[in-house]
Specification:
Layout lengths: L6 H15 L4 H12 L4 E4 L6 H11 L4 E5 L7 H4 E6 L4 E6 L6 E5 L6 H4 L1 H8 L1 E4 L2 E4 L5 E6 L12 H4 L4 E4 L5 H16 L14 H12 L5 H13 L8 H4 L2 E3 L3 H17 L7 H12 L4 E2 L1 H5 L4 H11 L4
Parallel strand pairs: 1-8, 1-9, 2-5, 5-8
Antiparallel strand pairs: 3-4, 6-7, 10-11
Length: about 325
């Protein structure tokens, strides 16, 4: 890209490109960019056909780096993700054959279709950015992002993600059906691609370099957050551990609250949202908008809450309504 174009302008161009290819899923596009700029991983949940797979593929076309899709199935093995040591009979040695996790952008499609031992193979990669095979550890690329998808229906033969792995995801995003206007535009896009016999989305004119992306990340970290807003963010997370302080009615709804990773994630994501909005400061709306996606996979509701039909999102709504905003 030209030297006079700022990192913010390059990200805006990337967002516009993705939005042209992913219609009716503005939240998904926004959260993808937030996860990318906050250097985190994302779990996306939605029914089939909502462009979850297409979204990460389109993102990979706009970013300098390589992409790999892994279809999770019940017969998948951990080595199918990490790689394995291959014996070389010509010299009697073993050579490590790198697996698909060594790509920059990785799509873990239908992650809940594979058993826990395969899901846990992602833990070290997501948290430590390295793969250990035998006595050797291998560093993953500087740009490394996992987007996992799971299907909320057809739960037969699926394996719920362990809490330890869920906590490694920066965001857990729910997406829904597009509205009528968006679906009409989707029809037009699909028809246009069919006429051109395109099996893949059209590629952008330019791709954002990894260096530009890393510069944008640093700028996001420099976004100002006032002390009272930082305290508000912390109180919101702490409220998931001690909700009884905000009412006996919600105090009985919780079994386990969010870990300190939630505070870190909410801080980084709020700064990125402010940066994407063209501001150099964080507002309460930045924190509130991301609270559900940051917290919903990090809390466990009590049996009483489930018996009353209380959802995690409803619980988080109550916290946002009751924790004082500065």
């Amino acid at each position: 890209m030209s030297a006079h174009i700022t990192p913010h302008q390059t990200i805006v161009q990337l967002k516009n490109y993705i939005s042209q290819q992913i219609i009716g899923q503005d939240k998904l596009v926004n959260r993808l960019l937030i996860a990318l700029l906050a250097d985190g991983h994302m779990l996306v949940e939605g029914v089939p056909g909502l462009a979850k797979t297409r979204a990460i593929k389109v993102l990979s076309e706009g970013v300098e780096g390589d992409f790999h899709r892994i279809q999770f199935t019940p017969d998948l093995l951990p080595a199918d993700l990490t790689g394995t040591e291959i014996f070389r009979p010509q010299d009697g040695t073993f050579k490590f054959q790198r697996g698909p996790l060594f790509h920059n952008l990785v799509l873990a499609d239908e992650i809940n279709r594979a058993p826990a031992k395969v899901q846990s193979a992602l833990l070290e990669a997501m948290a430590e950015r390295q793969i250990t095979v035998g006595a050797e550890s291998y560093a993953l690329p500087g740009l490394f992002m996992v987007m996992a998808t799971q299907n909320p229906i057809e739960q037969e033969g699926t394996y719920p993600l362990p809490e330890a792995q869920l906590d490694r995801f920066l965001l857990h995003v729910f997406i829904d059906y597009p509205d009528a206007r968006a679906e009409k535009n989707i029809l037009h896009l699909a028809r246009s691609e069919a006429r051109q016999n395109l099996r893949e989305p059209a590629k952008p004119a330019t791709r954002i370099s990894q260096q530009e992306l890393f510069t944008a990340r640093k700028q996001c970290l420099d976004i100002h957050m006032a002390d009272n807003l930082e305290e508000y963010l912390l109180q919101l997370v702490l409220a998931t551990r001690h909700p009884q302080k905000y009412g006996d009615d919600i105090g009985k709804w919780l079994q386990f609250g969010a870990s300190p990773r939630a505070s870190i994630a909410l801080d980084r994501c709020a700064r990125v949202r402010a940066w994407l909005s063209g501001r150099d400061f964080v507002t309460p709306e930045d924190i509130q908008d991301l609270a559900h996606d940051v917290l919903r996979h990090r809390i466990i509701l009590s049996f009483e809450a489930e018996a009353e039909g209380i959802s995690k999102d409803h619980f988080i709504n109550q916290l946002i309504a009751r924790v004082a905003v500065p």
